[in-house]
Design brief:
With 770 residues, this protein is of the alpha+beta class.
């Protein structure tokens, strides 16, 4: 059916491998400021954007909210939980939202302060194309057709390396072979955002990936421009700031030199610098006429103008004199002190301090039962390695309550998780949880968490392949000339007032993870290369400090840490170890006090046994080894009597395996009844396996075989066969069923009525009586 009310506009992007992405607007969600439907194969995303036409008074920032959401119906699934509906955002959805936000936010005009909401929702998934790599493109396309002031468009792509070749937006299946996974966001001209993990790659390899991603993004941006022109919606006018040029100049003249002097002083104490800058701000306000000092609008303007002066003074001091706020050289790392095994309770711990940034990191070892179950829309399974990051308000001296975990904490923890997870040995049996609690923060607490995680894990006895260190790089770029300065180990103020926050983690061999946000227009690959090489030097310095404090990982676990033994068994024994309804494995745990888990993978049963007590582990291992052991004739076993019969006793000589101890095999002496033997259920007996029936698999046991034969013992004669039985014919000589003579019918039954059945003669020959 043709709908004349709908006049959609559609554009198509063709990827290098022939796959296509379509962008369509004007068909759905038409009341939003901008709405675009993105399709790639069977994957469909809807991105919408709405902005307020009014501004909350006093707002001097960009109140942007980005929400990425995946519907369970998109993959044909029901949500879990009691309510069976989507709930709060998962970590994956929050991380995807942050990727979009970090690319969009810098491109709004600096004087635009209206509340803006961007929503990207997955409504269909073909379980082949990864939607997080398409979400940024969908969001930008919605912005492009909305008429909202925006210095885009942008796009985001995932770039991986498979067998030495870069692949853009790979499928889920292709990801299994990748040694590099980067999400890159950019405009047509500049890279804006990078985040990802790598398998210890070189700086040049990473630059190559960024270039490949940017080339693909340029095509996306060009199609969005065509879509924007086809829609033709004008950019609406706005006025969100009131300015007073005379007041702005007064603020600059009064404050600039004073701010420059503080920036040049090299004061290493953050709070003292903040107090000095605040004093200049207060002094300027005090110099104003009284009517202006009491005008909220004037005070708001002064706050903005003073921030601009402070930013200019810090940047000019770095560019013109090479002097940073705390007096360091451009490539200098702040002083570091480290103390492994800082607290005794956790299985591993370390405190890592770099300047005024400090993290206490703990490591806990657990079993398979401690794994985190993941039940996202497109990702299901279990995580064996967890890293959590906490940022309490006291770390920055703020007087406020500590609430739940925020998006920033999830993002910082995820970066540190990516940095170190590849260094855990393959097949490591423990579930590992690392927690980083930030005690002080003045720049790059996520990198302190990465270094602290390495130290705590090694303190816990985890034999990491190689230790990982991390550093945050900054950039000050002159807006009117090619002049720039790359800063190592940036402060919080250098992040806030600078043009780049570039975090790099890695081992001595190469890069393991990265995160980059750009706040300026134009960043050449020459600057990126310089930043990467300077970061490599900084990482090496920090790693040397870590190795001085902790040359090797702990050789043995702490006394209170759970010991674990892991081994494989044949798949056919999994059921025997678990037992009916889990009876066997639960019994092993109750008897030994150890935690036993078993799962099937790669065609084998993987058994893990853990306990803080070595004796418990040994006992559990012995029981499981006994279950999977194959009984051998001639071997001696000990086990309980499970059942008594008239002809003998059944003995569980191995876990889950019973054998018959016949009455004649109990002793050399002859017993007529089992009561005479004195054996009772529950008695522990030692027996010898004398035969395994090759047809039935039944086991014959003997206790008398373990006892010396009495002197003069005479073997009892075999019982004679009954003479009248004759020779039993062979099976093949017996007549077939159809050849056997039929039984003659009884002649005396006749056709008697049913009621006469009660009068039939009984088997004794008499008449049945009523």
């Amino acid at each position: 059916m043709v709908n004349n009310l709908v006049n959609p506009i559609k554009k198509t992007i063709t990827l290098s491998d022939g796959r296509t992405i379509t962008l369509e607007t004007g068909k759905v969600a038409k009341q939003a400021d901008g709405a675009v439907e993105l399709r790639m194969g069977g994957t469909m995303l809807l991105a919408t954007v709405c902005t307020s036409r009014n501004v909350t008074p006093g707002t001097d920032f960009m109140p942007l909210t980005v929400e990425y959401k995946e519907k369970y119906a998109s993959a044909g699934r029901f949500p879990g939980g009691f309510t069976k509906r989507e709930g709060k955002a998962s970590d994956y959805e929050i991380l995807t939202s942050r990727l979009i936000d970090r690319c969009l936010r810098p491109l709004f005009p600096g004087n635009y302060h209206a509340e803006t909401f961007v929503n990207v929702t997955l409504y269909s998934s073909d379980k082949e194309n990864q939607p997080d790599a398409l979400a940024g493109l969908a969001a930008s396309a919605a912005m492009a057709v909305s008429g909202i002031p925006f210095e885009g468009p942008i796009s985001e792509v995932r770039v991986v390396r498979i067998n030495g070749e870069f692949v853009i937006n790979p499928t889920f299946e292709q990801m299994k072979d990748a040694d590099m996974d980067l999400m890159v966001g950019a405009t047509y001209e500049n890279i804006m955002m990078v985040e990802g993990e790598m398998d210890e790659v070189s700086e040049q390899d990473m630059l190559g990936a960024l270039k490949a991603a940017h080339e693909a993004i340029k095509a996306h941006c060009q199609v969005q421009k065509e879509l924007m022109e086809a829609v033709g919606k004008p950019v609406f006018e706005y006025c969100h700031e009131v300015n007073d040029e005379e007041l702005k100049q007064q603020c600059h003249d009064f404050s600039y030199q004073r701010c420059y002097d503080i920036a040049k002083s090299g004061n290493k104490n953050k709070h003292e610098r903040e107090a000095a800058f605040t004093q200049i701000h207060d002094d300027f306000i005090a110099s104003l006429p009284e009517e202006k000092r009491e005008d909220e609008e004037v005070l708001g303007m002064v706050a903005r103008y003073f921030h601009d002066v402070e930013r200019e003074a810090m940047r000019r001091c770095v560019l013109d004199e090479g002097t940073r706020l705390d007096g360091r050289a451009l490539n200098e790392v702040r002083p570091i002190w480290i103390e492994p095994d800082y607290v005794p309770g956790p299985h591993g711990s370390a405190i890592f301090t770099r300047g005024e940034t400090q993290a206490l990191v703990t490591c806990t070892l657990g079993t398979k039962m401690d794994e985190k179950m993941v039940d996202d829309v497109l990702r299901n399974g279990y995580d064996k390695f967890l890293l959590h990051y906490n940022f309490p308000p006291f770390s920055t001296g703020e007087a406020k309550a500590q609430r739940g975990v925020g998006r920033r904490e999830i993002g910082h923890g995820h970066l540190a998780w990516r940095a170190v997870k590849g260094m855990i040995p393959e097949g490591y049996p423990y579930t590992v949880r690392v927690v980083s609690d930030i005690f002080e923060s003045n720049g790059s607490s996520s990198m302190a968490s990465t270094c602290g995680a390495t130290l705590a894990m090694r303190d816990a006895g985890i034999p990491m392949k190689r230790p990982v260190s991390g550093i945050a790089m900054g950039l000050i770029k002159d807006e009117n000339s090619p002049k720039y300065a790359v800063l190592s180990d940036i402060l919080g103020d250098e992040d806030h007032l600078g043009d780049m926050d570039f975090k790099v983690t890695g081992t001595e061999k190469g890069i393991t993870a990265t995160q980059m946000d750009i706040k300026c227009n134009g960043l050449s690959y020459e600057i990126l290369e310089k930043a990467l090489n300077q970061a490599k030097e900084g990482r090496a310095h920090i790693l040397n400090c870590m190795l001085e404090a902790q040359p090797n990982h702990r050789e043995d676990l702490k006394e209170h840490a759970p010991r674990m033994v892991a081994f494989d068994v044949d798949k056919e024994f999994i059921g025997a170890i678990i037992g009916p309804g889990g009876k066997i494995i639960q019994g092993i745990q109750e008897e030994t006090g150890a935690v036993v888990t078993i799962d099937e993978a790669d065609g084998k049963g993987h058994v893990a046994i853990s306990s803080a007590n070595k004796a418990s582990i040994d006992a559990a291992v012995a029981k499981i080894k006994a279950i999977v052991a194959i009984p051998e004739e001639g071997e001696i076993y000990t086990g309980p009597v499970k059942n008594i019969q008239t002809f003998g006793a059944f003995v569980e000589f191995m876990p889950g395996k019973d054998g018959l101890l016949h009455i004649s095999e109990i002793d050399w002496k002859r017993y007529e009844t089992m009561e005479e033997t004195g054996i009772k259920e529950g008695d522990i007996v030692t027996v010898k396996l004398i035969e395994v029936d090759k047809k039935t698999g039944k086991f014959r046991l003997s206790a008398k075989a373990l006892k010396p034969k009495p002197e003069g013992y005479v073997e009892p004669e075999a019982r004679p066969r009954r003479e009248d039985r004759g020779e039993r014919p062979r099976r093949e000589d017996r007549p077939r069923r159809d050849e056997r003579p039929r039984r003659e019918p009884r002649q005396d039954r006749g056709n008697r009525p049913f009621g006469d059945a009660f009068n039939r003669p009984d088997h004794r020959g008499g008449e049945k009586q009523d």
